[in-house]
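**User:** My hope is that you can spare some time for a protein that puzzles me. As I understand it, each token names a local backbone shape. I would be glad if you read both lines and explained how they fit together. The protein I mean follows directly.
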Amino acid sequence: MKDKKYRNRLCASVSFCLLLSLVSCKQRDDYPVFEQKEPVVTVPEVIPPDNEIGALAKKIMDKTDIIAIFKLDSTTTLADGIKRTHVRYMNKLNQAMSMQILEVDLSKTNISVTALSPFDDYLFTVQTLGDMAKYNEGRAGGKIIAAINGDVVTSSAPTGSFIFKSRQLKTTTTTATSDTRPFLGVKKDGSVFVGNKPSASSPMDSYNLNDLASLVSGGTWLLYKGAAVTSTVTTVQANTAVGLNAARNYLYAVVVDGGTNAFSVGITYNDLGKIMESIGSSDAFVTNGGAASVMVQRAESEGQSGFLSWKVVNSPVAVAGGPSANGIGFVLK
């Protein structure tokens, strides 16, 4: 009998608590009203019409099927002998594309090419390209006008060989038994060349590492002595490439953005090779791709207290681009 009375009291208490909680949940008259967030609407980009096709875009259109629909291009002279062209287009799959092209006239005696190292140091580490240019400015022999990312990073070090300020920091991919990885070499006299070979059976121009002031390796051959080096890799991504014409008096550095369907989806190695060949390269290779694909240019604010920086001119996935183990700088002496 006592248990029954206890149970009745317990049920009554629970019922009272439930009723009390329901009453307490009633919203007060002065309770603030929060506005509902409206869904984010993506506004499609409107590209202004461009009825004049620049020289480099026209070469690509005339010699390849890469540009299905031309959108716009613009060319900026960064210095006497260095021009940057930005091209927007739709590829053959009707996908948006964006590409930056540096055209460097190596016949100009006031232009030089140099390797860049993180923090202007000889230790292996990584740094974003804009900051790397800033640190390397003091010993570059002039003004660093523009730069592109260098080699693929492996454990905070460049994957291939690397020579910085005539110091051979790594030479594992330039030995007699391992010389198929491409590199851009700068001799101590300032002349620039693309070294190594795409296969063990390919002929190769001889070189002496002791003659080099700079060497920055890459990952994938695109062109070798005027012929395409076909890749079986079909990955579509952002990519950075560098190439030389047959006379070695013009250098072309290309950064194709990737990873964003609305802006630029990316490009395969084989299609990038077609671009490099069409604009004039005889030897060309990819330095690195993905988030590390970055191009920067010098930006000086006016006035006596002007601020010096190197702004990213392409659109990498990360705002400043992924960190690099080295870079290639283009210098106005």
Remarks:
- The chain has one domain: 55-201+208-332.
- The chain has a mean pLDDT of 90.
- Residues 55-201+208-332 form one domain.
- The first helix runs from residue 2 to 24.
